[in-house]
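Study both lines:
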Amino acid sequence: EGRGTVRQDWVQKVLDQLLAATKAGDSLLLLIRERQSKRLVAPLLAAGRSVEAPMEGLTLDQQTAWLEEKLRLAGVDPPGSRQRLEEEKQARRERRAARRTKAQAFQTQAPASETPDPTEQALDTTEQVSTPATEPPTPETA
């Protein structure tokens, strides 16, 4: 099944849903890409619906800006607004820095390993072996 068939199936499915949910004389505002709106507008108009596609002909960036402006005019902070994205990035950076600082502090406070260093064990053994079993007489005990 080719991409063209998948698109046609999608257009037909959306068209069927829109026609079932609306009646002749209803107004529809299509906030979809131009390619999809072109395929929907003619059948919707033929079925007596009024259709507006305000983002038709706009690039993706222009569509995003258009939607963000409409949200701002309605008093809503757009979820993908650049300012919010920058604030979220900064908050993530601060959380990472705090985790790093906490991890470094934990490492400096961590107790020494309970497992003895093999080098130290060897030195301890050597010292024990080279130490005579009895103490040599001292001038006071002699």
Q: What stands out?
A: Residues 82-109 form the longest helix (28 residues). Residues 29 and 52 are 5 Å apart (CA to CA). Strands lie at 27-29, 50-52.
